[in-house]
Amino acid sequence: MAELTGKYLVGVYDDDDTVLHAVPRLRKAGVKIKEVYSPFPIHGLDEALGHPRTRIGIAAFMFGVTGCCVALTLMIWTMGIDWPMIIGGKDHISLPNYIPITFELTVLFTAFGMVITFFISNGLSPAAHNHKRFDVRSTDNKFVMAIDMGRNSLSEEEISRALRDSGAEEVNIKQF
Amino acid sequence: MASAHSIPSIEERFEFTSGAKRNLIIGGAVGVALIALGAYLAANGGGHEAAHGAEHAASAIATPTPENASKVRAVAEASHHVKGLGARIWANLWVNAVYFTGISVIGMFFISYNYLAQAGWSAVFKRVPEALPAFLPVTGIIMLITFLVGGHDLFHWTDSSLYEVGGAHYDPIIAGKQGYLNTPFFVGRLIFYFVMWYGMWRVIRKYSLQEDEIGGTEFYDKSIRLGTAFLVVFGVTSSTSAWDFVMSIDTHWFSTMFGWYTLASWHVAGLAVITLTVVMLRERGYLRAVNSSHLRDLGKFVFAFSIFWTYVWFAQFLLIYYANMPEETIYFIERFRGFDGFYKAPFFITLVLNFFLPFLMLMTRDAKFTHSILKVACWCVIIGHYMDFYTNVMPGSMGSGGGFGPLEWGFFVVFLCAFGYSIASQLEKANLIPRHHPMLEESLHHDIA
Fold this sequence. Notes:
The structure holds two protein chains of two kinds.
Chain A: E1 7-13, H1 16-28, E2 35-37, H2 45-49, H3 56-82, H4 95-121, E3 143-148, H5 156-165, E4 170-175
Antiparallel strand pairs in A: 1-3, 1-4, 2-3
Helix pairs in contact in A: 3-4
Chain B: H1 18-45, H2 50-62, H3 69-79, H4 85-116, H5 127-131, H6 136-154, H7 172-176, H8 183-214, H9 218-245, H10 258-283, H11 292-323, H12 326-336, H13 344-361, H14 371-397, H15 406-428, H16 440-444
């Protein structure tokens, strides 16, 4: 996502159903689609675009395991080894007492880890400015399809016609 | 979205083949053989550590000082005499009947909350949960007979000498519960539960079959109202039946989490049975209209409610562990190290089967629609929750006379085969897909990507 350079053809659609049907049609015609931008998630669009499946689940599991280990290490070290304390007449290291906090930190690390990973991998950190946008209306009421001309062998006219045939109401050229 | 999947035919009849019937009957016969073997072994070898139990009881009687009176009473309650084979058979009938009652009624629970939520996705396999409650009369009659004939072996509170003020066995705590725990009221409640659960299911089933013939939304609307009424009834009776069927066995002990706990156990076991039945039907060529999204949602259900059961289990345990009050901790002490540690293994195996295995197996996305993984996870949950009820019922009812051998597995296998037979006979009675269900179209296109 990070570096968008070169020339793009941008198809603007008015309806989510139209864009969803346009994707397989264009791909069949040999057009390589970079991405489709939508104001809301569209069921089945990922599959239609042929995007590889997200690996955020694997990241989530890693973050969860990290959180679990951090929680147990923290409690066992502080409560059991560094400064042993008797609380409620239990052992210094009593695992049942630790489970709620272990659970909480596992969830916390997983949730924050996933959000941060998502932001970083999509270039959405708070420090990131001057986002390159194909069409700002994709955050409002339009569905925007970007086609990287540098990666397509078909000519500009052919792709432009294919976009219009598939239901695009506008076809614009965007140069970064 | 307009789905890319091609929708298979919705006209399909399940055929309960003679081969399947034969397999279930052979399974039942194996179960009976196991029971016979277990009974033979038990009659010749006694319960586990019979001598130890007697010694336990003797030491409790030998030291009845006021200081350890409550401890003595707890020990005496648990093992005032070592129970024999008869009690063990009643206890096994009770464990299985309670467990399969729960799974059966969860079928009604599942369709009820799906109606209340006006859920669309579950319509296509609705016949499967709908088939479960047909088993209720069987378990109901077994429970009634077990209570009336063998109840004295299982329920300490049925001993009338506990209520004689000034008598040698007078127990003020149990006497204080007499308003609720007495035989006529108990039997009345037991009959009430089964009449309500089974009766409401009969009506909702009738609507469902009529809808299949006539169509329209009239039966759907009626089912929503009836399902909602059932949820109100079940909201109360799930808790009270849990107290009656399971918690009252440990008469002194109580837990305010227990209704939830038992409901969670029944629910996840019921979901596992529903999922397993759907998978098995698919493997036999039925329910082709059930796609990977339905299976994933069912897998999520089993996954989520395994965690929910663990959460309730742990919430109950942690409070008791932390507060450390003898009248509460006795429950876990009996299971951890009471009766020579006999119930420790089933107690921990329960946690492994009901939490760790399904949690790790069903965690990834693809596992939730992979038939083989779903089957293994569902069997873990089904066996695990049987053992959950075993560890809930046995220490309090059988104490040191309990066992876990061919007798126990035999009863479980017999009930399982009978339950399977009941489900299959119900599935045969109607079109496998409710063809006029108003949500069917939505369900057929169910896609969670």
